[in-house]
Amino acid sequence: MLAVRVLAVRDAVAHAAETCRRGDGPVLIEASTYRYYGHSLSDPRNEYRTREEEAAWRAVDPIETFKAQLVDSGAATADEVAALVADAAARWARAPGREPGRSRASTPRLTPPSTGD
């Protein structure tokens, strides 16, 4: 499964969970994703990736395509999507363990995200 299709991933996980809850599991989901950033801040990603490869993956970026899908389907307006993005950015800025000035790509996650807020 190409994991850039947000709703397809959600549906696959829901189906797998239901299969396991019925006792018909386990289920393995193989999801192909793309990492835009290197493994570390010193990783020279431009030495092993072409600009064309990165551009092709950005064209199907799951966040951007899902935002467009929400607007195109009428599920949300562009302003509502922008408000959701701003809220997510604000939550990220307040995240426990977040060090000021570090990008999210370089911030380690040692604990599960909070379910509150």
Task: Describe this entry's structure for a reader.
It is built from four helices and no strands. The chain is an all-alpha fold and 117 residues long. It folds into two domains: 33 residues, no CATH class; 49 residues, no CATH class. About 6% of the residues have low confidence.
Offer a few descriptive terms.
2 domains; mainly alpha; extended; 4 helices; 117 residues
Order of helices and strands: HHHH
How large is the radius of gyration? 17 Å
Q: What is the overall shape?
A: extended
- How many domains, as an integer? 2
The mean pLDDT is 83
Distance between the termini: 31 Å
Strand content: under 5%
- Total E-strand runs: 0
* Share of helix, binned: 40-55%
- Structural class computed from helices and strand pairing: mainly alpha
Largest sheet: none
Low-confidence stretches: 107-113
Q: What does this entry show, briefly?
A:
This protein is an all-alpha fold and about 120 residues long. The chain contains four helices and no strands.
SSE blueprint:
Elements: H1 6-21, H2 51-58, H3 62-73, H4 78-94
